[in-house]
Design goal:
heterodimer, A: 157 residues, alpha+beta, PH-domain like, 2 domains, four-stranded antiparallel β-sheet, 7 strands, B: 487 residues, 4 domains, 45% helix, 28% strand
């Protein structure tokens, strides 16, 4: 039985863009090395390897990983617990009882803001769990809900 | 108790020692490493050193002068700082525990160091580095009395408790000297000591003229490998004895006393330490059996508790029993922390998990062997000897992995080098996670993790390749019961 809710499908776009950004850094390095190789007449296998790595990284970071990750990501917030499923090659299920939640916060980077998304961070005394990229309204509502449910029962750490 | 008080003047010396400790490395970098400085007059260096020393002493004195503490309006107030004035007010009910320790200097002047610990980690702690023992006791008594006065429940308890003070601190665990020596001798301290020595030598190998030394000793080396080996063995033994001795001194007269709400652990020969741990802050216990102790049926038990501070590494990993026979463990735990059960049948992980453990070892063994064989032919072929070793290691890890649920307790055991058994109460577990890779999924296995709070971070119990069905059992055990919903 998987958790019910998926995260926003705009998350896919955001992940692809951030993948693109991280890839462009490797590409810049590759191009820099290429230029240096031509100027100083270095051996060519280094640049060959770099281009290969960049290509593989681009494929993984822009196409494969975001879609697998998105398909895998599910969460469900019940009265007494939060159930999260994530992972790319390793499927990971986490269970957090409401009474263990210490505080919840929503966060928005520039990229998430552009797409009107926010991530929800749930902290217990010992661990931090993040639900990335929910619609802003949904994230706010979730934050309210969790913090209300969490404060029902106070318990010392 | 409201007039501001200063520490004992010996605190100036303690401050000096502290800043020297902090400055040793930068000092070496600046003064020793550059060696000859051409062009700079010879008198500059001594002058700079003299100025630095004067600054250290002056600073230490001013720090002592400006440091005052007092008790006012239910708060412990400290004012300090030479250039930046700091005022730290700590409310009594925020105080977790007060620890008294005595370093060598404190003992010479019959003083103590009082550590006032709060829940907030390193920032909120207050340290009075040198005060008279009577003062420390008075502060301790005063604050705990005030704390109880605010809490009506505790006051009721106190009246009852007055009659049974004798019974209050009944449970005692004492580590005898032979046990202590055995514990030090079988500890991993040897390894730490050795690697420290190696690191130290490798730091200085540029400064020590090894080549010249070795030239002089070439004859010595020619005397044959036998004497050299003997020499190395003696050196190793000396290091081992030293490490053991330093541990015995550190943990000498180890005593655990249990009162109603606290566990008090005291130890040390030269530097005495007393740690007070509120029982309701204890999150779990951890039993460690290392390579040498496990075959002998011995174990070390640690307390995981929510508190302690970053600066004080020892408060993050607290030994409850430095060395105990495993068959006596249950009895001793019952006396001190009766909620914990240590004698349970662990559910082992399934046989088909063994190949996964072996597989994981090979994942990094193959590149290592490959590299060794490639670069160091023919000697590199010796690295194939690692294969049976790795398989044996994987088998040990497989054999010692297991889990168990005992009422409200979850026990997870696993091994890296030492076998670790983490015992957690359900109400103390912060979250449970289980994950499975594609390979695990095919075999219906999963890795289970449970986190509890420990110190200022967390302690994670993990067992790899547990039967997936068992993971679901653990998960539903942990999941808040449905009946709670209707309340």
């Amino acid at each position: 039985m998987e958790p019910e809710n998926r995260i926003s499908n705009k998350a896919l776009t955001v992940w692809k863009i951030s993948g693109l950004i991280s890839c462009s850094i490797t590409w810049i390095i590759s191009i820099a090395v290429l230029v240096l190789t031509i100027i100083f007449d270095w051996t060519y296998w280094v640049i060959g390897a770099l281009v290969l790595i960049s290509t593989i990284q681009s494929f993984l970071a822009i196409f494969l990983i975001p879609s697998v990750k998105w398909k895998r990501w599910r969460y469900e917030v019940r009265n007494t617990e939060i159930d999260i499923q994530s992972g790319i090659f390793i499927i990971k299920r986490t269970l957090i009882p409401m009474i263990r939640v210490q505080h919840v916060e929503t966060k928005q980077g520039p990229l998430l803001r552009k797409y009107d998304l926010a991530s929800v961070e749930i902290s217990t005394a010992a661990t931090l769990h993040v639900i990335p990229a929910l619609d802003l309204a949904e994230a706010d509502e979730l934050r309210h809900y969790i913090s209300r449910m969490a404060s029902v029962e106070e318990e010392d750490v | 108790m409201s007039d501001p008080k200063r520490l004992h003047p010996i605190a100036v010396l303690l401050n000096i020692i502290k800043s020297i400790k902090e400055l040793v490395i930068p000092f070496l970098l600046v003064v020793v490493i550059p060696g000859k400085n051409e062009g700079i007059p010879g008198w500059i260096q001594p002058l700079v050193i003299a100025i630095i020393i004067l600054l250290i002493i002056g600073n230490a004195f001013l720090q002592w002068l400006r440091f005052t503490y007092r008790i006012e309006e239910g708060e412990f107030r400290i004012e300090s700082g030479v250039f930046v004035r700091k005022k730290r007010y700590i409310k009594f009910d925020r105080i977790h525990s007060m620890d008294i320790s005595e370093g060598i200097i404190q003992r010479v002047f019959s003083l103590v160091k009082l550590n006032i610990e709060t829940a907030g980690g390193s920032q909120a702690d207050a340290v009075l580095s040198a005060i008279r023992k009577s003062d420390a006791d008075r502060i301790n008594a005063y604050i705990s009395e005030e704390k109880n006065a605010y809490n009506p429940f505790d006051r009721d308890k106190d009246e009852v408790a007055d009659n049974e003070i004798a019974a209050k601190s009944s449970s005692v665990f004492k580590q005898t000297l032979p046990q202590l020596v055995a514990m030090a001798a079988t500890s991993g301290a040897v390894g730490v000591f050795l690697s420290g020595a190696v690191a130290f030598i490798s730091q200085f190998d540029e400064m020590i003229p090894f080549q010249r030394i070795f030239k002089d000793y070439e004859d010595f080396i020619e005397m044959g490998t036998f004497i050299l080996t003997l020499f190395a063995l003696v050196a190793l033994l000396a290091v081992y004895v030293l490490a053991t001795l330093s541990m015995v001194i550190k943990y000498a007269s180890f005593t655990v006393i249990k009162t109603d709400e606290e566990i008090v652990i005291s130890r040390g020969l030269l530097e005495k330490r007393r740690l007070t741990i509120p029982i309701h802050k204890i999150q779990g216990i951890r039993i460690m059996e290392n390579l040498i102790r496990k075959p002998l049926g011995l174990a070390t038990v640690y307390i995981e508790y929510a508190g302690g501070s970053m600066e004080d590494k020892e408060s993050l990993s607290i030994m409850l029993f430095p060395l105990i026979r495993k068959k006596h463990l249950q009895k001793k735990i019952m006396e001190i922390l009766p909620v914990y059960e240590t004698d349970t049948e662990m559910t082992p992980i399934p046989k088909r998990a063994l190949s996964r453990y072996v597989f994981r070892k090979f994942l990094y063994l193959i590149p290592i062997i490959g590299a060794l064989v490639w670069f160091f032919r023919p000697w590199g072929y010796l690295s194939f000897l690692l294969v049976p070793l790795a398989i044996f290691w994987a088998y040990m890890q497989y054999r010692d992995a297991g889990w168990s649920i005992e009422g409200n307790l979850l026990l997870l055991s696993s091994r890296f080098f030492s076998k670790q058994t983490l015992i957690m109460q359900r109400s103390r577990i912060q979250s449970i996670t289980y994950k499975k890779s594609w390979f695990q999924n095919r075999k219906e296995l999963a890795t289970i993790t449970a986190s509890i709070k420990s110190g200022i971070t967390s302690r994670v119990g993990m067992v790899a390749d547990v039967e997936e069905k068992d993971c679901l059992i653990i998960k539903s055990w942990y999941s808040p019961k449905k009946t709670v919903d209707s309340q």
